[in-house]
Amino acid sequence: MREVMNDLVASLDRGGRAGLVTVVATFKSAPRPAGASMVVTDTGEAVGSVSGGCIEAAVFELAREVIDGRPPTMQRYGVSDDDAFAVGLTCGGIIDVFVEPVDVRTHPDLPALAASVQAGEPVAVATVVDGPGPVGSHLVVWPDRASGTLGGARLDDAVADDARGMLDQAATGVRRYGPDGERRMDELAVFIQSFAPKPLMLVFGAIDFAAAVVRIGKFLGYHVTVCDARPVFATERRFPDADEVVVAWPHDYLAGAGVDRRTVICVLTHDPKFDVPLLEVALRTPAAYIGVMGSRRTHEDRVSRLVARGVSEEELSRMSSPVGLDIGARTPEETAVSVAAEIIAARWGGTGRPLSELSGPIHHDRPHDDDSRTQALPESSSAGGAM
Q: What three-state secondary structure class fits 302?
């Protein structure tokens, strides 16, 4: 819902009523992930997308119906469904969408939610999307409080506990409960959407390649910081797309940067006086991805220096060096694409091979393992969410 939040708030501010369509579950080769959303205003304007165009016309009509008074509803679209095929979901996927009305009565906590999202504060929203309970009810969950109700105190407590756990992982999905929050039961389907702060991309080395990596990092949804010890190079003028430009010794800055399991680190200095002490720190953080630029000869020299400083083989195995996938990149922009592709492959367990050479599902449903390196992509890569 992040990409349509402003439109929802604007609708409430003018006393209007909108229809919110949210993908709550996907199967096989679904075109958009869980959390993707579209808003239809009471003036007939549509913003956002839930299928890349496949079923927009059909869900637009459903949204108009809930604006006019139809109760919130869950709808499944897939190739096995004649109606879904008729509206164009021919990609082989199946998606469940939840359609609900949005106004000051149904969503009294929307302004507080929007303010937290805008401020980068962690917040999650739980919505009853199916079952015998009050379908369409909401619980907004912060790390230290909650607002709203899903119909009962025990259910609220159970869902709030799970929502905080999912928020820590920037996870979004459906959880099932009994009417009093029993986790052994599944009558109620609750969609939990996390709005975690943007993950960090830390780019070390204020070089021309860094500017391109910054741009693609912003495109992927990261909060991007450029750090270099040389003030003549580390300037906002040279990196206008960066969220922050820091002049500091890289290893000193990294030690206090708040690295977590979603952070990606790109070391582009290829100068041992900078990158060896930096990597000694980086390889002992929980970062999702650590990519290091340099030739193969530079890599070998770097490894020998790190070993001499006591870095273990296991720690060294976390380093992607030389950085990026083999796509024949030469320019800074092409190299940035190569780096981004490796980050995405690390997140989802992709092979980096042409899809035309492979068989089976195109999309990976989940990270390939539970290792910290699978946490590289920001939550906004599957942007959206039910209220």
A: helix
Beta bridge partners of 371: none
Q: Are 109 and 116 in contact (CB under 8 A)?
A: no
Peptide bond into 286 cis (omega under 30): no
- Closest listed residue to residue 19, CA positions, set 2, 35, 52, 43: 43
- Written as six digits, the tokens of 59 are 């869900």
Q: If phi over 0 gives left and psi between -120 and 50 gives alpha, with beta otherwise, what is residue 352?
A: left
Calculate Rg over the CA atoms of the chain: 23
Tens of each residue's pLDDT in the chain, 387 residues: 888 999 999 998 999 999 999 999 987 666 678 889 999 999 889 999 887 666 888 899 999 999 999 999 999 987 444 544 454 455 557 889 999 999 999 999 999 999 999 888 999 999 999 998 799 999 999 999 999 999 999 999 999 999 999 988 788 999 999 999 998 888 999 999 999 888 999 999 999 999 999 999 999 989 999 999 999 999 999 999 999 999 999 999 999 999 998 999 999 998 899 999 999 999 999 999 999 999 999 999 999 999 999 999 999 999 999 999 999 999 999 999 999 999 999 988 888 888 889 887 766 655 444 333 334 445 433 333 344
Contacts of residue 185, Cβ cutoff 8 Å, sequence gap at least 6: 176, 177, 178, 179
Amino acid letter, residue 72: P
Q: Which domains does the chain have, with CATH numbers?
A: 1-102 (no CATH), 108-196 (no CATH), 200-347 (3.40.50.720)
